[in-house]
Design the sequence.
């Protein structure tokens, strides 16, 4: 009995040790497989095989599923590009696209700028049967000559953009009157009126009773009032202006220039000046309807005209070339700023007392058909032009 019990105990112990060894082997193998991700890989392979077999079966069974699967694969490939494409190429492509976009914007801006400059710098000139001329000026103001029944131009000489009616035998050339060397040291301005009583067509704002053929002794309605307007505007630019308002053509018209000469000489004894202007009105008595007018923006202004004397009539006049040069300079600037403000300049044989100053001249403001309103407007623009040249 004892021996049998012993044998059974040994067998039990052997089996027990065997079981423990098997468990240890299982634990070791399991741990090894887990560390090498073999189970996970086998699981994925099994899942993939199962999935592929299932999709394959569906593709064969239902053809529409095959198309869906193809689209899904293409989408998956596009998504994979973000992870597999070279990042440098993506960045480079982005920069190139940005540069091209910027160049396109810059070209568009340059085109718009070019169009704008073309519109701003364009000058339109149109002359019709009534002598109307349209122009676009640099300061964005539109000027338009609106003279009805105009008098023939009659110019026979042109220096730059200035037309001249040369009534002398002198040959006028561009080289003779280069205004670039014109220097104005004395900026005092003398204004006077040889024909103080010259008046205009009555208007609602400025009605008057004539005391002659477009003449009146009431200086509030004559060229003397026009001179006062010019004086006011020039003083706003801080110029020292001496404006003489004496009668020189009343009570007698004859001898007007002799009397006005004495006036100017008296002024020069106390106020030295190079710029001496005799303000007149165009005296075309036979054309009472003649009203040389220019529209500047929304305003109507009487046109102006320089009359420059020479020594061609035999009187001493050493300043006439300087006088002409100054007038050309003023009119050139006027043509830049307000084209049409001045009519054709006249160069005459008479002296007109212009020997008294280095830059002396006659400026005729409008004609008998103009209103005082239009002439006063002209002085605003004349003062601006003069300031641009004198300053």
Sequence:
């Amino acid at each position: 009995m004892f021996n049998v019990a012993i044998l059974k105990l040994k067998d039990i112990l052997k089996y027990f040790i065997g079981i423990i060894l098997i468990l240890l082997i299982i634990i070791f193998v399991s741990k090894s497989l887990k560390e090498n991700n073999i189970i996970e890989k086998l699981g994925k392979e099994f899942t993939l095989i199962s999935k592929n077999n299932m999709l394959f079966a569906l593709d064969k069974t239902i053809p529409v599923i095959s198309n869906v699967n193809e689209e899904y694969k293409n989408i998956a490939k596009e998504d994979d590009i973000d992870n597999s494409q070279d990042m440098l190429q993506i960045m480079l492509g982005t920069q190139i696209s940005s540069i091209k976009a910027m160049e396109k914007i810059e070209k568009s801006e340059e085109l718009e700028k070019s169009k704008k400059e073309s519109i701003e710098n364009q000058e339109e000139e149109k002359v019709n049967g009534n002598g109307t001329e349209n122009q676009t000026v640099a300061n964005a103001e539109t000027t338009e000559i609106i003279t009805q029944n105009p008098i023939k131009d009659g110019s026979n000489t042109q220096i730059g953009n200035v037309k001249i009616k040369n009534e002398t035998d002198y040959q006028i050339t561009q080289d003779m009157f280069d205004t670039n060397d014109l220097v104005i040291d004395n900026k005092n301005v003398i204004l006077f009126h040889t024909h103080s009583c010259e008046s205009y067509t009555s208007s609602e704002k400025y009605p008057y009773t004539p005391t002659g053929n477009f003449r009146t002794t009431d200086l509030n309605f004559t060229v003397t009032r026009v001179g006062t307007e010019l004086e006011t505007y020039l003083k706003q630019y801080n110029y020292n202006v001496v404006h003489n308002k004496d009668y020189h053509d009343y009570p007698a018209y004859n001898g007007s220039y002799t009397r006005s000469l004495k006036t100017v000489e008296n002024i020069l004894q106390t106020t030295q000046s190079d710029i001496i202007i005799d303000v007149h009105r165009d005296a075309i008595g036979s054309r009472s309807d003649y009203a040389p007018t220019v529209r500047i923006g929304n305003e109507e202004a009487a046109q102006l005209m320089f009359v420059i004397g020479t020594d061609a009539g035999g009187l001493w006049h050493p300043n006439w070339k300087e006088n002409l040069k100054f007038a050309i300079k003023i009119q050139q600037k006027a043509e830049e700023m307000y084209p049409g403000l001045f009519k054709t300049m006249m160069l005459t044989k008479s002296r007109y007392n212009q020997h008294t100053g280095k830059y002396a001249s006659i400026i005729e403001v409008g004609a008998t058909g103009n209103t005082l309103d239009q002439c006063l407007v002209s002085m605003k623009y004349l003062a601006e032009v003069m300031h641009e040249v004198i300053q």
Notes: The radius of gyration is 50 Å. The longest helix spans residues 87-121. Residues 1-7, 46-52, 54-102, 118-138 have pLDDT under 50 and may be disordered. The CA atoms of residues 17 and 170 lie 144 Å apart.
